[in-house]
Amino acid sequence: MDRRDFGKAIVGAATAITSFGILGGKSSPVLAEVFFDPAMYGDQELRVGTVDSVRERTRRAILQDPQLAPSFYQLALLDGLSYNAANNKYGPNGGVIYSVLNSKDDDEYINALKRAANVLIQAEKDLKKKTAVSIADCIAIAGAEAIESIGGPVLPTQLGRMEPDKKKGVELNAALPIDILSGKRSNEEVRNAFKAAGLSEREMTALLGALLTLERVEKTRTTEDWKESVKPKFVERGKMGRMSDYKRLSDEDVKAALSDEYDEDPDDGWYIADSFGTRDDRFGQRIAKDEIDEKNFNKYLKDLYAFSIKKNTDNVFGWIGDQILDEASPTSQAWLKKYADSNLSYTKDLGIAYNSITQLGAVYTGGKYENLLKNKPRKTLNDDDLNLGF
Fold first, then answer.
1. Which CATH number fits domain 10-199+357-377: 3.50.30.40, 3.90.1200.10, 1.20.1080.10, 1.10.520.10?
2. Which residues neighbour 144 within 8 Å (Cβ) at sequence distance 6 or greater?
3. What is the pTM of this model?
4. Quick one: which of 124, 126, 148, 259 has the fewest CB in 10 Å?
């Protein structure tokens, strides 16, 4: 199958919602690999604009509702964990969105996932008016942005996931419980879910460590003060700034601007990210910037390791702490110590593990990418030849 055939599979989010069963219709599952075409976004400028638009939508949603930060990341993990390494089926093709929105469960975990899923569906729908973008790419970008939104490192994310054929439908691997990351499943079930997807305990520890951080970090921003990150910033005369910085706006001007920007016209969803300033200037302030950053992102893994040594305090690390410290997972405990000792080692492993889980089952199609990457084994954390995986 060539690129033109796959290109026909790219569909708008509104059509996908109806055709794939989010509104209750029936669908036939797609049991296929995740097809990639890294050239689908065209030139570099269009690619950057697409990525920044999804990131901005995600950051805005998190600033308004900080409790959504773990949910965006969980969507990305669930989409990847749907991959079946035994038969090379399923994978991060966006199926998690449809499974989440079709879920009949009504609890805090599922409802938060649904809110995050709806943000991404709207982002894809708006972007489709200007460029090709898949819901699967939106999920991967948003998961990485969730980590950065609390002050974490930038996670590399390969783009180019193509939409499955809408005539065939799509769904998550039925063997993967949608609540596998909710704390309701046993340690063995969680461990087996990662194994079934072809991931090692080292990768599981790195990925769950980030989820632990997302859940434990004190999210200092509220639903009221998120607008502060978009208020105009003024500079003193004699200092460098943009022309608009020198125009003093009244309180009424600011209120009107905020009202216009966040009460969007559904026909005008295209966002052009500002290329000036820091990431905080462009996407909004990080919700835990006073507590955590790229240099101490292993903070909670340090706390977990200290707890594992002393165990003289109450366990505040929940199911993830229990999972990593499970005696049946000695490898996880060894890597916890490594990550607690070295933030550099942890953030490096997290970046590789996240890039891996969001590419499981990848099949590259078309042109130079197919020639370069076809049948090339994925990079794993055991490529360092230390043989410290499972």
1. 1.10.520.10
2. 76, 154, 155, 156, 157, 354
3. 0.74
4. 259
